[in-house]
Amino acid sequence: MKRIVMLFFMILLTTIPVSAIELEAPVVPSSGRDLMPSEHESFTEGLLEVLTDALGYLQPDLKEASGICFCTIAAVMIVAVLQSFHGMSGNVTDLAGSILVATLLLRSTNSLIHLGMQTVGEISEYGKLLLPVMTTAMAAQGGVTAASALYAGTAFFDAVLTSLISKILTPMVYLFLSLAAACSAVGEEMLIKVKDAVKWAMTWTLKIILYVFTGYISITGVVSGTTDAAALKAAKLTISGVVPVVGGILSDASEAVLVSAGTVKNAMGVYGLLAVVSVWLGPFIRIGAHYLMIKLTAGVCGIIGSKRLSGLIRDFAGAMGFVLAMTGAVCLMLMVSTVCYMKGMV
């Protein structure tokens, strides 16, 4: 078995570009350069700088999302007024209202789904450059077996997850939105069941791959150590609440990030982590702003509008939440793998 691992790693080394042998983290992609901190020595300080700069993305997107949600609330109110008149068919107004609400929300939702998929692709491509460098550095210090296992596992799970997102989960998000609009328009019970089944399938597909990945990382035994309990608890609670669908799973994995990134001094690894965060955080904030505004709109419309229309708006919010979950999953997967390398390096 040991010979097989050594052979695998020798083959791996022959596939690494010459630039990677220099043991410098690859340059951050252009989409994240505006957020990349000026200093890369401390992960904590760099992360704080990235977060501070990323808040500048929030205001314009909140303004845009507020405008869309205001129009949506106005449309729901108009439908509610029409339904209050005698002689107006509820089915007709629900049909017209569903078409109007879906049209208002779909344009921004479609662009944000594409933004999320673009972010997933950029993080994955950066990981393909970063991980061979980390593998070479870890192997150079004697951790050939561990480096090979980490690289093989991470490359496999990244390929599986990104393929699922691009070829299965993203089309399922569009299918879910189409079914949500149809359910709101006609109120057919069978369509509601199909829509719920699609949502269940999306959710558990993403959860299962993350459960298996975190289990694999735990089995390798690379991640260990201690960190400040209060900081760890705060980070886990934040991630659990901020990232929909898979926040609980990612919050458990956040312990690995805090333990290694906060205690191990490795300039290459810290630079790589900050690069991943810089690429991911801007789109996450943009999508998150629309997600929160749509959820707020759904709450308001649940008071003033029909059950069908408020349910449709909640489904759009759910779709945005799932996009957040997919981008967060890919980002945390690469970060956890990177800190595993950092933990195995001096």
What labels describe this entry?
mainly alpha, 10 helices, elongated, disordered N terminus
Write the layout of secondary structure elements.
Blueprint: H1 2-15, H2 43-54, H3 58-84, H4 90-140, H5 144-186, H6 189-220, H7 229-242, H8 247-263, H9 267-304, H10 307-343
Describe this structure in words.
- The protein has 346 residues and is an all-alpha fold.
- It has one domain.
- The chain has ten helices and no strands.
- Helix 2 packs parallel to helix 9, helix 4 runs antiparallel to helix 9 and helix 9 packs antiparallel against helix 10.
- The protein is elongated, with a radius of gyration of 23 Å.
- The two termini are 26 Å apart.
Summarize this, please?
With 346 residues, the chain is an all-alpha fold.
SS field, number of helical segments: 10
Major sheet summary line: none
- The share of residues in extended strands comes to under 5%
Domains, number: 1
Oligomer: single chain
Helical coverage, percent range: over 70%
Question: What is the terminal separation in angstroms?
Answer: 26 Å
SSE ordering = HHHHHHHHHH
Mean pLDDT: 76
* Principal-axis shape: elongated
Low-confidence stretches: 1-22, 221-238
DSSP E strands, number: 0
Structural class: mainly alpha
Radius of gyration: 23 Å
